Amino acid sequence: MSPAVLVRGLEVRSGAARLLGPLDLAVEEGEHVLLVGPSGSGKTTLLRALAGLVAPAAGTLELFGARASSPGKVDLCPERRGVGMLFQGGGLWPHMSVARTLRFALSAAGVPRGARPARVRELLERVELIGFDERLPGTLSGGEAQRLALARALAASPRLLLLDEPLGPLDAELRGSLLGMLANLHRDLGWTAIHVTHDPAEAARVATRTVRLEQGRLVAPAPARA
């Protein structure tokens, strides 16, 4: 059985500067991997490569057994990767209400129009935002905004969830609440997750293992499969 993520010799460059790699990494289905390292070590760059937002300069990337990226090429477009992404601060659209945000995400994911109202309600229930349909992001608390961003990331029923320091802007109580929600959803939905965090101890209870990046390379990385 193929792993959820298989990276071999991956490098990402910006001009002559190497931002990431070379690195090898295998992540099994159902894992919740914490990705840690100092600022500028390449953590977000790796997430962007996994999401199909940047093509590698070298190496290959496979997702769930399918070739997703090869040197200079994104073989599988972001919309077809089965990937959801949750950004620090949410990255919400300020002019879109809660429900409209989710309807837009469902439309982009190709969910039929007739199925969207029920799916919106299901997503709102999962992140405990029932009754918030017409609220704008600017009227939400930090925790509510991150829960909406999580619902948007889940709209396309992703098999792989990429979390880019989603707890950073929240206070300790809200971080604990969102971590509990992530743990419950991971159990219920069985996704695979790669979770960038500045505080691995904080998120250790949801993780299956931790890997560390320094200067674009994994420190003592787990070997890719042969």
Tell me about this structure.
The chain has 226 residues and is of the alpha/beta class. The protein has helices at residues 43-51, 98-108, 116-126, 142-154, 172-189, 200-203, and strands at residues 5-14, 17-27, 32-36, 58-63, 66-70, 73-74, 83-87, 160-164, 192-196, 209-214, 217-219. Helix 2 (98-108) crosses helix 3 (116-126), helix 2 (98-108) runs parallel beside helix 4 (142-154) and helix 4 runs parallel beside helix 5. The strands form two sheets. It has a six-stranded mixed β-sheet. The chain has a five-stranded antiparallel β-sheet with strand order 2-1-4-5-6, with helices on one face.
Structural class: alpha/beta
Largest sheet: 6 strands, mixed
What are the secondary-structure elements, in order, as H or E?
A: EEEHEEEEHHHEHEHEE
Summarize the amount of helix as a percent range: 25-40%
Q: Enumerate how many helices there are, as a single number.
A: 6
Overall mean pLDDT score?
A: 88
How does the overall form come out from the CA principal axes?
Answer: globular
- The radius of gyration is 17 Å
Portion in strands:
25-35%
Query: N-to-C terminal Cα separation, in Å?
Result: 12 Å
Low-confidence stretches: 221-226
Main β-sheet, spatial strand arrangement: 7-8-9-3-10-11
